UniProtKB/TrEMBL annotation:
Comment on bound cofactor: Binds 1 FAD per subunit.
Positions of FAD binding: M135, Q163, K187, G188, A189, T226, H227
Binding positions (substrate): K100, R288, R289
Any one GO MF annotation of this record: proline dehydrogenase activity
Signal sequence coordinates: none
Protein's name according to its UniProt entry: proline dehydrogenase
Organism in which the protein naturally occurs: Amycolatopsis rhizosphaerae
Entry keywords, A to Z: FAD, Flavoprotein, Nucleotide-binding, Oxidoreductase, Proline metabolism
Length: 308
């Protein structure tokens, strides 16, 4: 892994860095680029604009590594309120939600996380939309896939995320390429040791394409989450090679990242879903975005310097 990336991801766990970043004068401008706001109302406004532009969205209430039941309950209630609002605004056919199991209690108790995720899925089902379970650190992959399997007994549309940087993903993808499955394929955003993850970008990309081929050859609905122009070009070729029709797969990108490319793909008739985070706990999310791309770090440092 790029040493700068490792350094930023390590800093993400440091309380002093967290305090420094949170109170730096230019931080707000950077957060605003990647995060849709703090409240449900902010989130609904942001996705309404995306839908007006012909895009789809998945909303993520920021928060992870919940340390007590009350915090997990707060996360669940926020999702339930959000789903109600999406339905009221007529947005639920184009906007779904993304859930981190650690935000609804995975680190406390697997059963609690399952019950909480079940409540969110039930509400989503009633609103006519779907849920995708984000994938987090590699230590949680087994538990996340286990809970996904449980939820899919009742809600076959619950989406999974697979990370191509993990060596195990080539096996996981085979198990998830069946009928009804919805799989978001991404490269992976967390720090992971060489024993479990590919270290070279080239290997991560090869794994991504191997998995994409498996998903396209399968019977499910693949969701290609990447901003990588080279991968997007190759995916376009693979989609045609497998005879996939538009609407039988989708592209996904993050809020604030390559917005022109999101609109270009949509204008060609592709389904493009934007991952829109909102909420107060933006620190971990922002640090992963900075780690991904040195240019983001430059933008961040310039913003800090210009306002201080
Ligand atoms: C919708 C969505 C959901 C995700 N969910 C998860 C998840 O559940 N778990 C998880 O671990 N990770 C998740 N990720 C993050 C993902 O794993 C990657 O860390 C992230 O997408 C960066 O990888 P990349 O494929 O875009 O390519 P990168 O290797 O980061 O970038 C490749 C190329 O893309 C272009 N590019 C990238 N960023 C920019 C930019 N800001 N501006 C212009 N060009 C750019 C550049 O040409 C760059 O060289 C998600 C990503 C998306 C898009």
């Amino acid at each position: 892994m790029n040493p700068l990336r490792s350094m930023i991801l390590a800093a993400a766990g440091n309380d002093t860095v967290r305090r420094l970043v949170a109170t730096a004068p230019g931080t707000r401008a950077v957060v605003d680029r990647f995060v849709a706001g703090e409240t449900v109302a902010d989130a609904v406004t942001a996705v309404g604009r995306l839908v007006d532009d012909g895009l789809f969205a998945t909303l993520d209430h920021l928060g992870e590594h919940t340390v007590d039941e009350a915090q997990a309950e707060h996360a669940v209630r926020t999702y339930l309120g959000l789903l109600d609002r999406l339905q009221e605004e007529g947005l639920s056919s184009r906007v779904e939600v993304s859930v981190k199991l650690s935000a609804v209690g995975l680190k406390l108790d697997e059963k609690l996380a399952l019950d909480n995720a079940f409540r969110i899925c039930a509400a989503a089902g009633q609103c006519g939309t779907t849920v995708t379970l984000d994938m987090e650190e590699h230590e949680t992959t087994d538990a996340t896939l286990r809970l996904l399997g449980e939820l899919r007994h009742t809600w076959p549309w619950v989406g999974a995320v697979l990370q191509s940087y993990l060596r195990r993903t080539e096996d996981d993808v085979a198990a998830l390429a069946g009928p009804d499955s919805r799989v978001r394929l991404c490269k992976g955003a967390y720090a992971a040791p060489a024993a479990v993850a590919y270290r070279r970008g080239h290997d991560v990309d090869l794994s991504y394409l191997w998995c994409a081929n498996r998903l396209l050859a399968g019977e499910g609905y693949p969701m290609f989450a990447t901003h990588d122009p080279r991968l997007i070009r190759i995916l376009g070729e693979r989609v045609r090679w497998y005879g996939r029709k538009q609407g039988s797969y989708e592209y996904q990108m993050l809020y604030g990242v390559r917005p022109a490319e999101q609109r270009r793909l949509a204008s060609e008739g592709e389904t493009v879903r934007v991952y829109v985070p909102f909420g107060e706990q933006w620190f971990g999310y922002l640090m992963r975005r900075l780690a991904e791309r040195p240019a983001n770090l430059g933008f961040f440092l310039r913003a800090l310097a210009s306002r201080s």
